[in-house]
Amino acid sequence: MLRNTVIAFFIHIFTGVIIWLSGNYFYDFVFNKYQSNAVIMNSYLLCVSIIGLTVYYILGRKLLRFQGSKLKSLLSVSLVSLIGFIIGLYLIIFTNDGWDWIMYILYNAALHPAMMVIANTKYALWLSILPSLFMWMGIVHKEKSNMLSQVQFFEEQL
Questions:
Q1: What is the mean pLDDT of residues 62-87?
Q2: Which residues of the chain form beta strands (DSSP E)?
Q3: In this structure, what DSSP letter does residue 129 have?
Q4: pTM
Q5: Which residues of 89-111 are buried (b: 16+ CB within 10 A; e: fewer)?
Q6: pLDDT, tens digit (0-9, with 9 covering 90-100), for 113-153
Q7: 45 and 31 in contact (C-beta within 8 Å)?
Q8: What angle do CA 64, 66, 70 make, to 5 degrees?
Q9: 154, pLDDT greater than 60
Q10: Rounded to an integer, what distance in angstroms lies between the CA atom of residue 58 and that of residue 54?
């Protein structure tokens, strides 16, 4: 379980850095060309966030291990989202909107584009749940695939 938690943090950091760097690079291009078109800008930002969630899913599937049950697997990756949620909740309660939120944005860098679309801190807080959810879905899907391939193997042996 500890192994999954540590790897989940590395996945979270890696995905955040990749999305932050690549998303900002392409954002400048899109912004310079389509800044007056909110639909295109929001669509771009949501696509970048979907790519980030896909990376969470793929890396969760490739690097994380099933923990014997779906609940244990979810708990093994949930600390990533719990920390993000606590940071966001603290900021909602004790600070104003604005620069105070930079810590939350940096911690959840992979979902920063979606935060820009939402533009409401109370709703953006719930985005912090998505990294763990998508890593967990990757773990569960891998386990289902493994179980299916084992069943097919045994059927072929008969």
A1: 93
A2: none
A3: G
A4: 0.85
A5: eebbeeeeeeeebeebbebbbbb
A6: 888 888 777 788 889 999 999 999 999 998 877 666 655 55
A7: no
A8: 120
A9: no
A10: 6
Distance CA 70, CA 146 (A): 14
Place of tokens 């060309």: 33
Q: Which residue, 96, 140, 112, 133, is CA-closest to 45?
A: 112
What span, in angstroms and rounded, lies between the C-alpha atoms of 116 and 118? 6
Reading the block at residue 93, the tokens are 């309660």
3 state SS of 66: coil
Please tell me which of 5-14, 84-93, 142-151 the model is most confident about, judged by mean pLDDT. Answer: 5-14
Read off the pLDDT of each residue in 7-26 and give the average, rounded to a whole number. Answer: 89
Query: Going by C-beta distance under 8 Å and a sequence separation of 6 or more, which residues neighbour residue 129?
Result: 81, 84, 85
Please report the sign of the dihedral spanned by the C-alpha atoms of residue 3, residue 6, residue 8, residue 14: negative
Residue 114 has which token pair? 């979606």
| Residue 126: Cβ within 10 Å count | 11
